[in-house]
Design brief:
The protein is α/β, with parallel strands linked by helices. 41% of the residues lie in helices and 15% in strands. The radius of gyration is 28 Å and the shape is globular.
């Protein structure tokens, strides 16, 4: 087995061409078998097997630096750097991350998890090399999807300033290769980057510039003519105009051809983009047919491609999807926005039923937010469905473009709280903190699936910036009988007791129900309140507790700093209320990957841990 010969970085260089052909098939087989057990990102990784092999053949790791945009396509890179055994614990607590992690290997030069960052990071590494005088290559790998993010264009614009070699690999898994254009482009790429050609061009231009009066005109005319020819023959003229040499397109399944072009790219003194055409899910028919289904796959049956575990209950995204369809039918002013995640956020049904009121802006959360502000300014009701960790990228736009103008934009924040397997870069544990700091922002969190429906309807009726945050996973279906109308800033009493009051927010209500039962066994009849609103929270309800309670426990699935509990604590102190406040929240740290239930126990926010902490305080 050729794969067994890969024990550490650069071992791939020892293989023969015949062995490389076998290796790519073995890697695909290994990925399919491993991810069918653990789950993970499959389609994106199958598409870049040969591309990754070519990079490892042409560059010396860890001396040379490869920055993977997003990083969910780095599985082959991990295999080729000696981490094959780690796939048994992929994305599990204490196991190997599904993204590049510098503390896993020196070959992971930059941690990534969000889109459109690799060119900026790579340019920083390349500029640092220029300053320090070090000698290494820098390669930023970015997908065509990630190029819809504005940050990538900011980086491309800045990249033209670098005077030393900086390689950008465009992993294009959307457009097909046009052979005639590709052939001409390949010829021109090789010719244009050859040392003899560059020297000849520079010598001619320098000589012409020295001719009095006419020299400058001749140079200008030559340049104009050259640009016109390029516009006709070179698909990468967009990059060329930005001062970035374009090579390609190259067949992403042809290792030999990619290696040839990468060697050409290494000779360029400046920024160079290599356009590689790949196919998502390549080598596994189910993933080729349904790449989005195998983007972040759960454990699946290899033969059929179907998930091993059938979902019997609706998750919160399903509930949101249903509500959006109903709201779209009832109100023609409701429009929906996604940042390239229509399926993930549950907007597929809305798109199918109301295509003229659905907007996919690409991986551009900042633009999506200001775009929503413009729609709201014109009288529409925009609902921007976005993952909590990705909304972080639009903080300024939420503050500056939405909240200062007090515009009615609805933020449907999916994956709020602990999300599990994707780890640090995807945990949605900061949104209450950063949103509650912004004046005019209203923040709600539902206790169960019915309350999510009620809160979305409330949000659409509301007049101002409003965010509804809800977790990943199966929607809680308890407490169905308690369904008070949603009123601005009003909490909901679930159970009245005395002495200890628990005010839980959103997903933590379900945990709080168990905490109350545990306390009951210990002789404490606690009051349970569904907070509903993180901002503005129910101050009247808190004041009323002082008559027969001495302790208030807040519970939230957000970091402590700046969260719901801290705001409540400050209120109690400011008004000198006779209540001792205990904040149950996530620690102020980055939470690694792992099963959500296990993470809750580790972080002491599960029911037993919370009950123990309350007893300790008492």
């Amino acid at each position: 087995m050729v794969l067994e010969k890969i024990q550490k970085e650069n071992d791939i260089k020892k293989l023969t061409p015949a062995e490389l052909d076998v290796l790519k098939d073995e890697i695909r087989e290994f990925l399919i078998e491993s991810i069918s057990v653990t789950g993970g990102h499959l389609a994106s990784n199958l598409g870049v097997v040969e591309l990754t092999m070519a990079l490892h053949l042409c560059f010396e790791l860890p001396k040379d630096k490869i920055v993977w945009d997003v990083g969910h396509q780095s599985y082959t890179h991990k295999i080729l750097t000696g981490r094959k055994e780690g796939f048994a614990t992929l994305r599990q607590f204490g196991g190997m991350s599904g993204f590049p992690k510098a503390d896993e290997s020196d070959c992971d030069c930059f941690n990534t998890g969000h889109s459109s960052t690799s060119i900026s990071a790579g340019l920083g590494l390349a500029m640092a090399r220029q300053v320090t005088g070090d000698d290494y290559h820098v390669v930023s790998v970015i997908g065509d999807g990630a190029l819809t993010g504005g940050m990538a264009y900011e980086a491309l614009n800045n990249a033209s300033s670098i005077k030393s070699n900086f390689i950008i690999v465009l992993n294009d898994n959307n457009m097909s290769i046009s052979e005639n254009v590709g052939g001409v482009s390949q010829y021109l790429s090789g010719f244009r980057t050859a040392d003899a050609y560059r020297d000849l061009k520079n010598n001619i231009m320098n000589s012409l510039n020295q001719i009095p009066v006419y020299g400058e005109r001749m140079v200008k005319r030559i340049r104009n003519t050259k640009s016109s020819i390029k516009q006709l023959l070179i698909p990468g003229m967009f990059f060329e105009e930005m001062g970035i040499i374009y090579l390609g397109p190259v067949d992403g399944s042809d290792i030999h051809e990619m290696c040839r072009v990468f060697e050409e790219a290494k000779r360029v003194d400046g920024p160079v983009l290599v356009h590689v055409i790949t196919k998502k899910g390549a080598g596994y028919p189910p993933a080729e047919r349904y790449p989005s289904r195998f983007h972040g796959a759960e454990p699946f049956d290899i033969e059929t491609g179907l998930p091993k575990k059938k979902r019997t209950k609706a998750n919160y995204t399903d509930v949101f999807s249903t509500v959006m369809k109903k709201m779209g039918e009832r109100n023609p002013d409701v429009v929906a926005i996604t940042a390239a995640m229509a399926d993930g956020t549950g907007l597929r049904r809305f798109r199918r039923n109301f295509p003229d009121r659905f907007f996919d802006v690409g991986i551009a959360e900042a633009h999506a937010t200001t775009f929503a502000a413009g729609l709201a300014k014109a009288g529409l009701i925009p609902v921007f469905a976005v993952y909590s960790s990705f909304l972080q990228r639009a903080f300024d736009q939420v503050l500056h473009d939405v909240c200062i103008q007090n515009l009615h934009v609805v933020f449907a924040i999916d994956r709020a709280g602990l999300v599990g397997s994707d780890g640090e870069t995807h945990q949605g544990i900061f949104d209450i903190s950063y949103l509650s700091a912004i004046p005019n922002m209203t923040i709600l969190a539902p206790k169960n699936k019915w309350e999510l429906s009620d809160m979305m309807k409330f949000a659409i009726r509301f007049n101002g910036p409003i965010a509804v945050r809800y977790p990943r996973g199966t929607a809680y279906d308890g407490l169905k009988e308690i369904r008070e109308p949603v009123e601005l800033g009003k909490s909901e009493l679930i159970q009245h007791g005395k002495g200890v009051a628990i005010m839980a927010l959103g997903s933590m209500v379900a945990t709080a129900v168990d905490v109350v039962e545990l306390l009951q066994k210990r002789g404490i009849n606690a009051t349970l309140i569904n907070a509903r609103f993180a901002m503005p929270f129910d101050k009247a309800a808190i004041k009323s507790l002082t008559t027969d309670h001495y302790m208030l426990v807040t519970m939230e699935e957000n970091v402590l700093s700046g969260g719901f509990g801290e705001h409540v604590t400050e209120f109690v102190k400011a008004h000198e209320l006779a209540l001792r406040v205990l904040n149950i929240a996530l620690p102020d740290c980055y939470v690694e990957h792992g099963n959500v239930d296990l993470l809750k126990k580790e972080l002491k926010v599960d029911a037993e841990s919370v009950a123990d902490r309350i007893m300790q305080e008492l």
